[in-house]
Design brief:
This protein has one domain: Amidase signature (AS) enzymes (Alpha-Beta Complex). Helix content is 40%, strand content 12%. It is globular and about 70 Å long. Helix 7 packs antiparallel against helix 8. The longest helix has 24 residues. Strands 1-3-2-4-6-5-10-11-9-7-8 form an 11-stranded mixed sheet, sandwiched between helices. Strand 2, helix 4 and strand 3 form a beta-alpha-beta unit. The protein is an alpha/beta fold and 499 residues long. The chain starts with 5 loop residues before the first helix and ends in a 16-residue tail after the last helix. The structure holds glutamine. The site of glutamine (GLN) has 13 residues, from loops.
Length: 499
């Protein structure tokens, strides 16, 4: 059962071939079998999950009308507040914090009867691309346990890829859903900014952060997307509009006559050969399905990475000021009548990791008087230029495409001491966040040189998320008929069952 898609599991639940308690228990067993190796979870909420599952089974037995994903298990990135369940954002500074409330995403999941198995590992405060910046140790890529699963939502992506959960939630500030999806051979979507409520999503960079779905297929991902999206009065940046019909789009999957724009700046030099080969092949498949492929020029994308690594640290230096040893989690150094400032400094020194400190310092510098215009102000101007580039490109094409990441999964430890090399991995995903639009990564096959998954990225204008699913479903269907099944069915076997 655990090797099926969420849509198939939902059908089996509806037909009463299996109960949610059984399905949940099977996933908990899988976690016990493989998570010692993968380390996707920071916290497994066995009792909570089984209780949620039993409640769904009771409602089903009573003949109540249920949401399509009722009773399906899910892994939740530890950046989202869940009432009474440890929530750390991958940071030691939040160790021991149990939120007194649910984030809106969690409330929506609970209302839909989705069973939350536990909280997944992540780069501390979502700052990173490999999950190695977690305060609790790295997560390992199920395709090759010596490699990273990408990040920052590496725990969520690895959980889905290792069949520990059919679905997961991540968050994407600069690529943290799409890039780990690419590196673990699954589907991940960063919805339009404002489409999913940020209430209860621990803030990294508020103008860029957005939670979104992971699944093993485009349809599964769409089903989860529809559950978590929607207007929320508790989030001032939430868009007051109806949720695009992404499930219908994922079911139609037609690209005949669709104009697909290949971004000139997001390919070629710096992209691994096998990544480029799978990307070109996917383009040919889309063309054979009747799509029209055009090339588009986005000259300002050259500056996207530099702008992002000023804006995101600037916003984080402000957002992380709330971790002051008074309100949440860790508190050290308050023996012997130490001043509030001394306790704050000692707690932050002990609680924040190196990358978080680096970014707070960078952001504080970029925002300081005398430097503000030169750094933060210039970065905001680049952001406007990127929005303009997208506008022109979307006038010529319905969706835009690129490889999701320039390389396949790299070795644990390979880039962790070289932040610049790590930042370069975000080159293709960051422009989406700067412009507030939406993007998907779906598996495009394995790179010839290392047999590791390659991601294909699709981008669409704000609130046109259904276009991602329409094009994604078409490509997914074409690729699976070529391979005789979806990519993930070919994932290397882990201990505890062949996949
Ligand atoms: N890797 C990027 C960063 O380190 C993006 C992270 C994210 O999307 N949360 O900021």
């Amino acid at each position: 059962m655990i090797f099926k898609t969420a849509a198939e599991m939902a059908t089996s639940l509806a037909n009463k071939e299996v109960s949610s308690v059984e399905l949940t228990q099977s996933h908990l067993d899988r976690i016990t079998a493989v998570d010692g190796d993968v380390k996707a979870f920071l916290h497994v909420d066995k009792e909570g999950a089984l209780a949620q599952a039993a409640a769904v089974d009771a409602n089903r037995a009573a003949g109540k009308s249920l949401s399509p994903l009722a009773g399906i298990p899910l892994a939740l990135k530890d950046v989202l507040a869940q009432k009474g369940v440890p929530t750390t954002a991958g940071s030691k500074i939040l160790q021991g914090w149990k939120p007194p409330y649910d984030s809106t995403v969690v409330s929506k999941l609970k209302d839909a009867g989705v069973v939350i198995l536990g909280k997944t590992n992540m780069d501390e405060f979502a700052m990173g691309s490999s999950t190695e910046n977690s305060g609790y140790g790295p997560t390992f890529n199920p395709w090759d346990l010596t490699r990273t699963p990408g990040g920052s939502s590496g725990g969520s992506a690895a959980a889905v890829s290792a069949f520990e959960a059919p679905l997961a939630i991540g968050s994407d500030t600069g690529g943290s859903i799409r890039q780990p999806a690419a590196l673990t051979g699954i589907v991940g979507v960063r919805p339009t900014y404002g489409a999913v409520s940020r209430f209860g999503l621990i803030a990294y960079s508020s103008s860029l952060d957005q939670a979104g779905p992971f699944g093993r297929t485009v349809l599964d991902t769409a089903m989860l997307h529809e559950i978590i999206a929607g207007h929320d009065v508790k989030d001032a940046t939430s868009i007051n509009a109806s949720v695009p019909s992404v499930v219908a789009a994922a079911k139609s999957g037609d690209v005949k006559g669709m104009k697909i724009g290949v971004i000139k700046q997001l390919q070629g030099e710096g992209y691994q050969k096998g990544v480029q080969t799978r990307f070109t092949e996917s383009l040919d498949l889309l063309a054979s399905l009747g799509a029209e492929i055009v090339e588009v020029d986005c000259p300002s994308f050259e500056f996207a990475l530099a702008a992002y690594y000023l804006i995101a640290p600037s916003e984080c230096s402000s957002n992380l000021a709330r971790f002051d040893a008074m309100r949440y989690g860790l508190r050290t150094g308050d023996e012997g009548g130490a001043s509030a400032e001394a306790v704050m400094a000692a707690t932050r020194d002990a609680g924040f990791g190196r990358e978080v400190k680096r970014r707070i310092i960078l952001g504080t510098y970029a925002l300081s008087s005398g430097y503000y215009d030169a750094y933060y102000g210039s970065a905001q101007k680049i952001r406007t230029l990127i929005i303009e580039d997208y506008k022109k490109a979307f006038a010529a094409a319905d969706v835009l495409v690129s490889p999701t990441a320039p390389t396949t999964a790299y070795k644990i430890g390979e880039k962790v001491d070289d932040p610049m090399a790590m930042y370069l991995g975000d080159v293709a995903t960051i422009p989406v966040n700067l412009a507030g639009i939406c993007g998907m990564s779906l598996p495009a096959g394995l790179a010839d040189e290392d047999n590791l998954p390659v991601g294909f990225q699709i981008m669409a204008p704000a609130m046109q998320d259904q276009r991602l699913y329409q094009a994604g479903a078409a490509l997914e269907a074409a690729l699976s008929s070529k391979w005789g099944g979806t990519l993930i069915t070919k994932a290397p076997a882990l201990k505890g069952g062949a996949n």
